[in-house]
Fold these 4 entries.
Entry 1:
Amino acid sequence: MRSTTCTEPGLAALAFCALLPGAALAGPLPTGCFARHYDAAHLAAHPAQVVARIAVDFTYDPRPDFAQIAPGNFGAALDVELAHQGHVTRETAPDEGFATGFGGAQMFNVLLCADHGGKTRCTTPCADGGFTIARDDGATLTLETTALPVGQGQDCGGFTDLIEQPGQPVSYRLTRAPARDCENF
């Protein structure tokens, strides 16, 4: 079940959700599904990588599981399967009661997208998380981030982060995929 941040908002979420109606968007925006499945060879060559599979569904139209995206806004549903490596396999926040051993877990977040200095930036409803579309040729997207929280239904993502090292940017190159790759994650 996806978070309902903008359907049952607290004050911070309400303020965030109110920001985007009518926001200017950068150039032609990607719509539809973009995904990538990293094979064992790729993951072995990048032992700090925490993502085994990723799918991002960009849309202007709200769906039942896109509760945060109001009509007329542009948003993205992010779904990931975490790899059995990197920081997601270690204890991340025992003092907060988070579970350990995230390897293989499926997590998600829903982001709202708008123009930020001529580039499309998709941000989480809370904190400073999100990604910038650094490259879009219609068939391939490169997403860049320095903080991208994901979770399993709690507000604002929150369980873990898709970056590999704190403060270090990470990129994900995705290709256009059939809608079923995002819908049946």
Entry 2:
Amino acid sequence: MQNQNQNKRIIVATVDERIARLYEARPTQGKALDLKEVATLTNGHENEHERGRPDMMGGPGVRSGPGGSGIAGGPHLATPNETGKEESRRFAREVAAWLTNRPERTDGQTLNVFAASRFLGMLRDELDMPKTDHIELKQGEFTQMPVNELRTHSALLGALSLK
């Protein structure tokens, strides 16, 4: 007799500051998922501030007068840590919009979103809750895990009540 869970379609997303992956899954016999990646969103904001920061006027080594340009004279206002947080916030905003606009994939089912703890709060802040009733946020760092490991990972299966 076939297990009733085997016909159940599960939508899973794994997210961190660098990438979001969307999967369709179905439980298999035993403790595993038949897992298929269906979409990916990458953070285009990484190191954006550094790429957009101006150099000295006239380019490096070129002086515009006796004292040179004052543009490179003082410290930059944004520290690397602040810049990283801002990049993460921007990506959280993008991911929230990306997940919210996926109802055609979920067909009314719950979208189980696993996010790294440091990113979970930012993502929660960016989600427009009335539009995201189908999204359930859960803590879990699975984004960098290969699919063959993810499909049998006990913490993921437990969080999806399949263990």
Entry 3:
Amino acid sequence: MIGDIPLYLVDNNALFRFPPAMRTSNEFRRVVRLPSEVIHEAGQYATRYDLSPLEYRPTPTVLRHLKVVMNQVPTDGFELIDLYAGEGAADPLLVACALDAAKQRSQLLVGEVYTVVSDDIAVREACERHQVRWMSAADFAEELSQKHSD
């Protein structure tokens, strides 16, 4: 909608495909949010690149949305999250944060509109199941560079 503020929830698989200069740019830091688990998975890089100010915090409403996302994951499905292997814990949280933001946006005349940025097929499929917009890391990088050059 006109006047909405486009923001992006970025997955780790996308985050570290961007060059350090992009990750530390003012424009990147202005439009990117990272679910807590993405920051946790980033490990030492979270401190090096000061990612904590970009955190999208897990509120009770985010956790309610996470429950909705997880209810759509088959019990034998390990594509979106594989807790046994310790992988993908941030993936459903990306979708839950986007759903949370969409709910908040629906109650406002103008607000933040989030797109998930991920190169993970399971994340993209989860986004589509929950009608959440997504884009690839390459598309995000191109969009950000176009905005930066304007």
Entry 4:
Amino acid sequence: MSKMRGRCAALMAAVMVTLAPAAAQAQDNSAAMTEVVRQMRETATKMEGQLPAEDIAEMRRSADEIEAQIKAGAFNTAAPVEDPNDVTGRLMREHGGIVDWLENETACAGYSWETYKTYRLDTGDRDGERDVLCQKAYAHYERYFYLGRDGKTAEARVELEAYDVAAHAAVDFYEKR
């Protein structure tokens, strides 16, 4: 029985890998999944007498489940359209799920939007210039945070975009030293 489940799982994995690029393009995969169901049923019929009856029944149950999912539209979903104004989503995609990505960069180590007004670098040359760049980035982030909290999403979006630009400037400055 476990061999048959393994085969069913392998078949399903192969199908899903095959369909992954299509799903990313938001195509209707119902026809492809209908073909998988047909192949599963055909295989179950061919394997009758060679495999235990419960394995054949499991294959047919799996085919029935997939068919029900097809009828429910599970394989006909559109990929979400990216909103060009979604700065938060873009930053999260670009920086591993983190909006305040500058906190993970060496350029402004020790800074945060809560400490930028009082924290100062004291590590060597050009600290003053780095301080200004890091302070500017985190000033934008602080404004973004409070505007977002207050429901002013349009203004918050502008500040978050400004934070990203200023954060890149701080990182670029640090990397050029």
